Amino acid sequence: MATLDINGQRVTVDDSFLKLSPDEQQSTVDHIAASLSPKVDPVSVNNVGRSFATGVPILGGLLNKADAATNAALAPALNPLFDEKDQLNEPTWSERYAHSLRDQEDTDAKFAAQHPIVDTGAKLAGGVASMAPIVAAAPGLFGATGSFAARTGMGAVSNAALGGTDSAIRGHDPISGALVGGLIGGATPLAEAAASPFVSSILARINPQGAANRQVARAVSESGRPTADIAGDVTRAAAEGQPQFTLADALGNPGQRMLSTVARAPGEGRTDVVNALEQRQAGQGRRISNALAEGFTAPETAAATEARLTAARGAQADAEYGAVRSDAGRVDVVPAINNLDRNIGTGGGQNLSTPNDSIEAILRPFRERLARVNPDDFEAVQRIRADMADTAQNARQNGYGNRARLIGQAVRELDSGMEAASPGHLAANRNFAQASRDIEAIGTGRDAYLRGRTEDTIPAFNALRPEAQAAFRSGYVDPAIAQTQGAAFGANKARPFINDAFQAESQAIAPGADLMNRRIGREQTMFTTRNQALGGSRTADNLADHEALGVNPTTVMHVATGNWSGAIGSLLHAGVRGVTGNTPAVRKAVADILLQNGATMNAAALNAMVTRTIGQLQFIQQLARSGAGAAAVTTNANQPKRPPPIFVKGKNQ
Known about the structure:
Distance between the termini: 53 Å
Mean pLDDT: 77
Number of helices: 30
Largest sheet: 2 strands, antiparallel
Number of strands: 2
Radius of gyration: 49 Å
Strand content: under 5%
Structural class: mainly alpha
Shape: rod-shaped
Strand order of the largest sheet: 1-2
């Protein structure tokens, strides 16, 4: 028996082979070689490592250059050592070195041919591993961030430069390398956009919570605010009496629009969103009324305030006027009588005739009472004065301004006589008048809110004493609260207080203006969230419901009219949500996150979730851009290498 080595494989033949002629033996060997399947070398760490290094951009080409440069540098010094072997027809050192490189390249080529997937994967891995830190350091330069147009443009430019440079270093055509690199870099964003819906759909079905986290993290990123600030807004709102303020509100437009997406598609998420927003809106009037009452420190209505102040004024007057009666002297009533005579038209010593008009009819009884009263009876004069003052106030309240003015003149004349007769009466009068002005401030505040201008309202308030300012606040905020309580359900009850006039006046008038305005501002934001999520046309909601029931009227109409292209488009549109990962489970998870409030939110957990998710997304983007660069370089690495020069003594020196 004989053993032959044919194409690296050992073959055993019987002894008859040895009896054949040389030509017959060669023919037999050729026949056996043709029948043998080619030997596949096993995958080795050395082969994979060389493929990995070859895939590194620029460096892989430099290694080839280094081989040739080493040969060129050492050949002049080492070739003379082989002069004696040259005479014996032995190869020089340079020839041996060159042949060794060629053998290695043949081995590399054979490995690539036998294991194309492993070879290409190793080269791509080398490119990705080397490009990833570079892309992370300058993501915008390599098209990993920015708009679609920016990523496409920068990706094409950077990859073209990388592919051209790498191709030139490897000894290939730099123009073709730049073109291939630019095409791969420019096409990567488009490939990402095309593959993203399918990838999202798969991930959403595997892990709905993870998909929801990615969507919320995107909204946080779009808001442009730190996660800690957003979470702080929610917890601060709860601390200030608004636990209904949610993460969706704090995110602003990104969160509101995302909540709208959930609310306009069928599923448990929509039910949760609609119920939460409608229940919250139902309590808006009560919350704003409380904020106004607390901000203006007006816990009671204007009517209750007026009744309380009036009762206090009466009690104080009774006490003070009663105290001055015992030490009063004679009251000079003549000036008051003369004032009435001038207004009635009678002179001294004249008999009074029938009144000519209503004013005379009002004034004459007072003139008669003063004429017959005993001036020494201070209490009797005081009763006449009280009746005159009440009549003047009643006339003023009922719109008889002239009548009130004329009676008031006589009252002031009588007050002067009574103050002269009793020193304590002057102080009692002043206190009564001040208490009356405090009560009048209620009406002044009411008018200021309903029809006043800021330029008049603020100075008028500042001119009042503290007691009158409190009454002014009560009158000012009373119609505002009544307006808020009377607004219909669904109306934005915060809107009347979102203006420059109210902001300026409340800062000057309300002690708790800062907190009150923050609460009103949040109510405005919460209404905007509800309006964004539930407002507008119901067409989108209806279409979503029809899709959920499997009956799309648009598709039916297209089929009935023979519009097959429109019918196909409707059917494709019906599957968009499932393809993009917008599944009911994902929407439910998104709703759960966005509806978190101060009582349920964990700020640290939210920050960790957003940071982790954004980091993962950025890593994927950078990996994609690194892969684009690696793909451009791999096309260069897979091209045939130029053989290194062989330095023969006397020819290459």
